[in-house]
């Protein structure tokens, strides 16, 4: 028997009866869209390659248990900002790089160019679906490659030893992607003379990062730069120009010169930065000397083995050569070894001419006397004479026979 309910006063107000909830429907599981992710494929000195997509590493739900939709993407929005070394965004008024660009749905990659080497950038991307912009991707921070740097290791009178490398930095307060130099296939080096017509153009394998340039001029300014090429045959930026000046030469001079000896002196003029007006200022070589090498040759027998072949410590700058022949010409050269014990160029040849012997002239003869005079003829090669002729401050005269010897000074 079904009793008729009193719906008018069943102990509850009519409003409360109408607001009672019904039974829950069957649950439906929905997964939101995967986040966008920016990927950096290549980082160079002045560009990097960027692509974006939904995060392929996000959790994948079984399609049987989760309802999913594939809304149509209507566009992408990429922002790239230059950062300072602490990871903070730089002010746009400073002329820094700030890119804010929208892409059509078919574009999912972008090559960012005209960047600054060794500079930090932040990249973010988002997608537009159903007329609404989604969330920004997690920021990607990267540092462009620095330009190659040239080190001048050693400078001589006629050579220079160069090396190059790329010194990469890393942020202390922020994780950042950095480029790689592992794909370098070769290097290209160019060197020019500033005040003379010198040009060297060399290419090296990727394993070669040092080079000795020879046959340079003494006391001359040169500039050099280098760049690298990757496996895709793309050349990097040129390095900053390095500028240097070769050593001044060793110069030889003579002190006193007599019939049988000559005093030899050698030195190198000081080399000061203010002597050179080129910009950037050239690297001044280290002029320190560990030892000197002196050779003296008899000119009439040249080329021949040297009469003198001696080495001296770096503090010795003169030497007296004895046992020479009168009225004879001798060629003198000197070279110096640097702090790495590498010998430099020989000095310019200097020629010394020893004095001729004194000539005795008999003026008159008597029963018990003779009158003599003496003098020195001017050598025919007087124009080649170098050094200071020893002044005649004293004469020594000897007259001798089998039973008599007369001496006077």
Could you characterize what this model shows?
- With 409 residues, the chain is an all-beta fold.
- Helices cover 1% and strands 42% of the residues.
- It is built from one helix and 28 strands.
- Strands 3, 4, 6, 7, 8 and 11 form a six-stranded mixed beta sheet that branches. Strands 13-12-15-16 form a four-stranded antiparallel beta sheet, with no helix packed on it. Strands 21-18-17-26 form a four-stranded mixed beta sheet, with no helix packed on it.
- The longest helix has 5 residues.
- It is rod-shaped, with a radius of gyration of 45 Å.
- The mean pLDDT is 85.
Task: Detail the topology: elements first, then pairings.
Elements: H1 14-18, E1 36-43, E2 48-54, E3 73-83, E4 98-103, E5 109-112, E6 120-129, E7 132-133, E8 140-143, E9 149-155, E10 160-165, E11 177-178, E12 184-193, E13 199-205, E14 210-213, E15 221-230, E16 242-245, E17 250-257, E18 262-268, E19 291-298, E20 308-313, E21 318-321, E22 329-337, E23 350-353, E24 359-365, E25 370-375, E26 388-389, E27 397-400, E28 405-408
Parallel strand pairs: 8-11, 17-26
Antiparallel strand pairs: 1-2, 2-5, 3-4, 3-6, 6-7, 6-8, 9-10, 10-14, 12-13, 12-15, 15-16, 17-18, 18-21, 19-20, 19-22, 22-23, 24-25, 27-28
In brief:
The protein is mainly beta and 409 residues long.
Number of DSSP helical runs: 1
Helices and strands, in order, run as HEEEEEEEEEEEEEEEEEEEEEEEEEEEE
Shape: rod-shaped
Q: How does the helix and strand content classify structurally?
A: mainly beta
Q: Mind summarizing the main beta sheet?
A: 6 strands, mixed
Helix fraction bin: under 10%
Number of strands: 28
Strand composition percent: 35-45%
Poorly predicted regions: none
Distance between the termini: 173 Å
């Amino acid at each position: 028997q079904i009793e008729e309910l009193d719906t008018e006063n069943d102990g509850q107000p009519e409003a409360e009866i109408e607001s009672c909830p019904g039974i829950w429907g069957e649950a439906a599981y929905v997964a939101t869209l995967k986040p966008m992710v920016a990927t950096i494929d290549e980082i160079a000195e002045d560009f990097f390659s960027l692509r974006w997509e939904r995060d392929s590493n996000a959790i994948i739900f079984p399609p049987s248990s989760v309802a999913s939709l594939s809304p149509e993407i209507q566009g992408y929005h990429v922002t790239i900002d230059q950062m300072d070394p602490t990871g903070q965004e730089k002010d746009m008024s400073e002329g820094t790089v700030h890119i804010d660009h929208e892409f059509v749905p078919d574009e999912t990659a972008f090559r960012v160019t005209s960047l600054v080497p060794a500079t930090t950038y932040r990249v973010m991307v988002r997608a537009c679906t159903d007329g609404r912009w989604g969330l920004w991707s997690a920021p990607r921070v990267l540092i462009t490659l620095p330009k190659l740097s040239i080190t001048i290791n050693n400078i001589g009178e006629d050579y220079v030893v160069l090396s190059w490398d790329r010194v990469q930095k890393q942020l202390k307060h922020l994780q950042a992607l950095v480029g790689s130099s592992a794909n370098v296939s070769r290097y290209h080096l160019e060197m020019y003379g500033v005040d003379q017509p010198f040009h060297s153009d060399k290419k090296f394998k990727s394993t070669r990062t040092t080079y000795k340039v020879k046959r340079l001029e003494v006391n001359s300014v040169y500039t050099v730069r280098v760049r690298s090429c990757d496996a895709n045959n793309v050349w990097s930026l040129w390095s900053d120009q390095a500028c240097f000046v070769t050593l001044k030469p060793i110069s030889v001079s003579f002190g006193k010169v007599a019939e049988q000896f000559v005093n030899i002196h050698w030195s190198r003029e000081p080399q000061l930065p203010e002597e050179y007006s080129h910009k950037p200022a050239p690297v001044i070589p280290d002029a320190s000397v560990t030892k000197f090498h002196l050779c003296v040759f008899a000119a009439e027998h040249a080329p021949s083995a040297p009469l003198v072949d001696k080495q001296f410590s770096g503090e010795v700058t003169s030497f007296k050569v004895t046992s020479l022949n009168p009225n004879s010409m001798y060629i003198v050269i000197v070279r110096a070894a640097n702090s790495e014990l590498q010998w430099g160029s020989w000095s310019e040849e200097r020629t010394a001419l020893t004095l001729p012997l004194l000539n005795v002239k008999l003026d008159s003869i008597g029963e018990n006397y003779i009158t003599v005079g003496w003098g020195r003829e001017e050598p025919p090669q007087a124009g080649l004479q170098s050094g200071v002729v020893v002044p005649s401050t004293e004469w020594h005269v000897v007259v001798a026979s089998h039973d008599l010897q007369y001496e006077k000074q």
